[in-house]
Amino acid sequence: MARNKDPRESFNEMMDTPLDFSAFVMNRLKVDTLTPELLAGPTFELMKGSFKSLTELEYFLEEAYKATTEQLDWTNPKSQQYPHDLRKPLPLVPNSRGRCIILFQHFINNDLEYLSGGVSSRKYTTSVTKTKVADYGDIKWIEDLVPNTMWSQVLVSYDKYALWGISHWGKKQQQFYAFAATRESAKDVYSKCRIIAVTKLEIVEWQNYKHLDWITVCKDDDKLYKFKEGDFNKLRIQDIEDMLLLFVQGKLTNLTIKERLAFNVSLRMFTRSVVIQRRVEDLQLGVESYQKKPNLTRPGTYKPDLKRREAYSSYSNPRGFIYQNKDKKNRLMRIDELHKFSDGTLNDVLTALNDRLKGIRMQYLPQSIWRQRNRDNAGAMVQAIDKQLKTKRIMRSLEKFIGGRPYEGDFRLMQRTI
Q1: How far apart are CA 207 and CA 216, in angstroms?
Q2: 200: helix, strand or coil
Q3: Is residue 62 part of a domain?
Q4: Which among 220, 264, 212, 224 has a CA at the least distance from the CA of 243?
Q5: 201 φ, ψ (degrees, to nearest 5)
Q6: Is residue 8 part of a domain?
Q7: Residue 30 falls within a domain, yes or no?
Q8: At the top level of its lineage, which domain of life is listed (predicted)?
């Protein structure tokens, strides 16, 4: 007779592949839905033996609880089935003027309220917990399609505990995490080399939270680099992706199980925080995750003198470039507001600037000869847009690691984004 599989082995397999926590529990309990009663009883008993830290277990149960109490994923306020398939891009519908817009009623996530709510943020479930995101590909002009109510009038400040994802923790645990997560090493930890191995971890534990005091990694220049958990925000976003890939692909066998679990919790908590913040501070990522109100003011695309200026020429104050929107009207794209534009719009402007820099004559482009100042400004704009698009691609990769974006295939075969 075959021996039944050890539940701990099943849990370790789940930790090695970023599966949905709620789906795992429902499968083990053989139920279709999770209720607060199930979470407080059978689920806790099922999972407590598999967690080295009760803080880690409480973190997952809190997210599952919020997902079961916040019902905006599945029903609208009238308790009817939600009218749109959330796995697909939001539909574009014509308004009274005949222009296509995205209906505000289809936006369901309240990450901005969660991040700014402090203690009250416990009643909001985050977008990475609630629903998968849609992929808009290269749809242009999304910034012109979203409703006015989506833009913020003023930028909102965040509650630090909500931003870290620990607003549901006890006070002492929050104080320790705030102390530990903000401790940074004195030296510069930035490097363009790729992380190829995690060689050593030094862990400090207090109040059931295992803090990574020091992390030693080997990069592709064959040198060892040492940094603290508090240095995560100073690393390149590619470094975070590299470390996540090493974990999910089972390449940390030199570390103990305790060290791997502590590394996993710390890294994914940081990744989750970065993803949620980017979703409310980047228009494309915000629309894809159905944010009701990102932390963005409307981009300043209009200036009175744009009508008499040449399209795809530089603008000095504020610094940016003039482009043409879908109505062939001149608009300003500021270099410090690229995160307020969709990927499709950015790619459209990027192609036009590259064509002009290379001297390619296209019918839609002006035929005037650029001065050196225009060429220098265009080169800087191209670099800035490239960096913005690259960051978005990496963010979409990070979303997959924490369940915020579906991934088809085996994570062991997943490749680095850049």
Answers
A1: 24
A2: strand
A3: no
A4: 264
A5: -125, 140
A6: no
A7: no
A8: Eukaryota
- Please tell me the pTM assigned to this model: 0.77
Residue 182: count of CB within 10 angstroms of its CB: 13
| CA separation for the pair 310, 270 (Å, rounded) | 45
140 φ/ψ angles, rounded to the nearest 5 degrees: -90, 160
**Amino acid identity, position 243:** M
Question: Could you tell me the pLDDT band of residue 54, with boundaries at 50, 70 and 90?
Answer: low
What is the phi/psi pair of residue 81, to 5°? Answer: -60, 140
CB 384 within 8 A of CB 377: no
Which residues of 284-416 form beta strands (DSSP E)? 314-315, 320-324, 330-334
In whole angstroms, what separates CA 144 from the centre of its chain? 22
CA-to-CA separations, 290 to 34, 87, 134, in angstroms, rounded: 24, 11, 9
Residue 225 DSSP symbol = E
Show the tokens assigned to 38. Answer: 């199930």
Compute and round to an integer the Cα radius of gyration of the chain: 24
362 within a domain of the structure (yes/no): yes
Domain holding 308, by residue range, is: 304-393
Lowest mean pLDDT among 185-189, 249-253, 271-275, 384-388: 185-189
The full length of the chain comes to 418
Single-letter residue type at 31? V
> Smallest Cα–Cα separation from 146: which of 274, 307, 297, 275?
297
Q: 58: which 2 tokens?
A: 């409480």
Give the pLDDT band of residue 48 (cuts 50, 70, 90): low
Averaged pLDDT score across all residues of the chain: 79
Peptide bond preceding 94 in cis form (omega within 30 of 0)? no
Q: What crossing angle do the helices spanning 257-281 and 54-69 adopt, rounded to 10°?
A: 40
**Total domains in the fold of the chain:** 1
Element (DSSP H or E) covering residue 245 = helix 237-248
Give the pLDDT of residue 217. 93
Tokens 């082995």 belong to 9
The whole-angstrom separation of Cα 399 and Cα 417 is 12
- Positive or negative, the CA dihedral 38, 43, 46, 48 is negative
Q: pLDDT (tens digit, 9 = 90+) per residue, 293-352?
A: 999 999 988 888 888 888 888 888 899 988 888 888 899 999 999 999 999 999 999 988
